[in-house]
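To close the section, here is one more complete example, presented without commentary so you can practise reading it yourself. The ligand is zinc ion.
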Amino acid sequence: MTAYLIRNVSVVGGAPTDLLIRDGVVAETGAGLAAPDATVLDATGLVALPGLVDLHTHLREPGREDAETVESGSRAAALGGYTAVCAMANTSPVADTAGVVEQVWRLGREAGLVDVQPIGAVTVGLAGERLAELGAMADSAARVRIFSDDGHCVADPKLMRRALEYVKAFDGVIAQHAEEPRLTEGAQMHEGEVSTRLGLTGWPAVAEEAIIARDVLLAEHVGSRLHICHVSTAGSVEVLRHAKARGVKVTAEVTPHHLLLTDEKAASYDPVYKVNPPLRTAADVAALRAALAEGVIDIVATDHAPHAVEDKECEWAYARPGMLGLETALSIALDVLGPQWDLIAERMSRAPARIAGLDGHGLDPAPGVPANLTLVDPAARRVVEPAELASRSRNTPYARMTLPGRIVATFLRGEPTVLDGKAVK
Ligand SMILES: [Zn+2]
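Output:
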């Protein structure tokens, strides 16, 4: 194993120091370290963060390898500064058995670019009718701890209660896609002024808020852990604030796109802006940003949702919802939060690693800690070129935008997955 001596790096925004990486861990830190056998990387001006952890990634394998594979999605993740991603269950077949989650986990190990932690489905086939084999997935080699029907809401309250009860035994968590389905039938975009102007059927904020309100009460009643996927409205923030004040074991995520883009984008009818939940209003964006800074929203998660060209470059009404996210998330966070490195490390690495229970991730670089880290150049600016992305899909809403920050290197257990901003393999 090669040793690496990273010179003059700011660890999570602190004063410049050296980091020696050896045998998969951070061996030493301090100014003026010497290690004749180590490869030296001059990191002057760079910031070291604990490797980013994404709690919400769609890798599309098995089933839609034309849109993404575990390997291509892992490469996109590493290039985005990630060392671990949680793979959503809405594959084909659905990840609702030990067999499928083990397959995804094994493909992740083979790619070896990030740790791929499969998420299991809550219900068989994501159909919302009966519980999947949660225990078998938890006991499998993939050691599933997060369960989600993401893409669909677990709408049946009795089923949601039973799922929360079931995972309590092994400290699992149910990650809910909060969307009351009866309130969003035929919805094309956020319900508001813009949808009225465009004559498109709206997806009202209350469809999200009603499910979150119900589920925090269920989680409180059961005493179990609940996670809310892609929170998108100001009202949801208020429900979460209330629940957290009561001590409910609820955590929540926001996506980069909901922190940056608004429903005005739908006026272009460019399906790249179609996403579920939809882009909301400027007031919602402001509330989400404040909630993230305050901690009412715990983490940034990408909801990286690659789609093949034929599913995205068509009429708005027929386009699949979703956007790429892994390769641009840190830049968006930097744009939205500014260089608040400790906050970025907390919301994009430490907290998601804690929620997912991922050992060895989400730890600031320090002696003895597994060397899962990323080096960021905060002064760099980059123009997003879809053709240059490692993802197999091209549905980024940031095409040709100039964004701050660039991932220079990523290390997974001491081995570089990215160097000089390029994937190593
Ligand atoms: Zn979702």
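Once you have examined the tokens, check your reading against these statements. The chain has twelve helices and 19 strands. The chain has a mean pLDDT of 98.
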